[in-house]
Structure formats: C-alpha cells, structure tokens
C-alpha cells in the first residue's frame, strides 16, 4: 500500500460512484487490548460484503484522512485512513495503520464480492 | 514426556501453536508420534501490516497460509488441516455444528492426546470458542474412550481460578525448532522476534524460561 494521495483517492472513489459495489468496513483495537491493559475499553465493528451504491463520495482532512460515501438512504464513513492501494483485482483498498504498522481501520470497495 | 499414539492440536489462528506448544509438538514428532494440526482460520484479521505496510487486509490470509505451512514444516507436522473458518467469527458459529466438526476430526484420527485452548481462560474469543468446541466434542464421548486433553491458558486470572499448570514440558532440546517456528510467522512476529533475540543473547532468565517451558492444564471432565 502507498501513503494516501488525496487527489488520487478521490479519483478512484469517483470512478466507483453510482456503481453496484461491495464494501468491507472494519475498525479494531485488536483482541488483546484489554488483556494488556485492563483499563482499556475494547471495541470494534466489522461488515464484509455490504452491497450498496453510493451517489457521492469525499475524502477529507490533511492526513490521517476521513472518507464518506453518501448512499441513497444513508452513509458509510471511515476515519484514520493513512494508506491506499488499487489491487490486482481492481479493488480500492483503504486502511489506517497506527505508528507500529498495526491496522486500526479498513474501508474497501469492490465491484465484485470479497472472498 | 509420555509417548502418545496420535496427537491432535486444535487452534484457531496460524501462530497460536508457535509460542505455547511448538516445542512439545516437535518432541512428540521426534518420539515418532504423528501430529495433526487443525487450524480453524487463516488469521484474516491480523493487525500487523508493517510500516511501510507489506500486506493488505485482502492479501494477509495468503501470506499467513504460507507462513502456517512453513511453520508446520519446521515442526515436522505432516498433517496440517485448514478448516476454513474466518478469524474473529468462530465464537458466533453455531456451537453444536462446531463441536460436531471437532467430533468428526476426533473420530477420524482417534488421538490419545488433544491440545487446545482452555475455554474461558484463553483471552481471544476465538481461542475460548475453539477450546469450548473441542471440550464439548470430547464430553460427548463415553468417558472410557476420551483422550487426554491438555489446555493452554494465559488469561490474567487463570492461575487464580484454575491453579497452576499440572504439566510442564522442558523443550530446551528443541528450542531452535521453536524459535524457527516463531520466525516462520514473520508477518505477525517480526517486532517481537527482534526483541526476543536480544533477550536470548543476554540469556535473560525469564525469557529463557518462557521459551523452554511449555505449560498445560489437563482438562477434568
């Protein structure tokens, strides 16, 4: 993955506008966060292969970045995005990695379902 | 260490075997005991991606599958099964179906010893759910046919609640295999390996003890 180049990511998001897409969205502190620090409140959310269409998209911030997708009847957003890649299957992979290289958030958009 | 007829190891993630049991498995294999390792997931939700990142959420399972195969080769495991569950979803599977899957493995392999996580004392929800499914499967067997079950526990409260481990294996004679196994899972262990090697060079007693002693709790039905 490469560090986010805002204009380039916006271009990729725009390409996917008004298409039938599959979304992977996750946030995580890791399963061991509360084990190593019992005062830490661990939380996370995960959705794989949400099937939707968005009519508008925007990447915001100066890095780490925020990304919002406006659908006909709702929203998808992610914050803390640092890296991006269009992979060999033409999927737009976005992720936020902390200072140790640990994934903290992922937003992925694909025209075909994720495995 | 007692000689076994067949060992079955059941863990949910590639690398779960590395720290806690790889020395024990290597000793069983040196003893001529066949070892089957059933790994439920490919660790798809691993978080170590490197800085700069060497993997994506989508490429990680392929990397970890290769690392799992490499680790099995290092230990000498000939029978590696990848069961096709997804990381962090094991606890949400239907309990009976998961336990039945474990029963099928046990029926097929007829192990004299099963190694898995101690349900409730293994920190990660996948660990607890995997251990629970194995225990349920063994519980369903007639008492006289049940294999021994050695559990791995490491939650902060485990010794308080289930006491000290009753079985400790000294694996110092195969420490090199164990370290190579940990290194095989390099995507997940690179940060730790660097630190560990420095500590080993200085022969820090706590680190040596952690590597050389593998602790198990025998499950009582």
TrEMBL record, chain A:
UniProt-listed Pfam families: DUF1806
Domain of life according to the entry: Bacteria
Listed InterPro entries: DUF1806, YojF_sf
Protein name (database record): DUF1806 family protein
Organism: Cytobacillus purgationiresistens
From TrEMBL, chain B:
Protein name: Bacillithiol biosynthesis deacetylase BshB2
Lineage of the species this protein comes from: Bacteria, Bacillati, Bacillota, Bacilli, Bacillales
SUPFAM superfamilies on file: LmbE-like (SSF102588)
Gene3D superfamilies cross-referenced by the UniProt entry: LmbE-like
Pfam families noted in UniProt: PIG-L
Superkingdom in the source lineage: Bacteria
PANTHER family: N-ACETYL-ALPHA-D-GLUCOSAMINYL L-MALATE DEACETYLASE 2-RELATED, N-ACETYLGLUCOSAMINYL-PHOSPHATIDYLINOSITOL DE-N-ACETYLASE-RELATED
Cofactor (UniProt): Zn(2+)
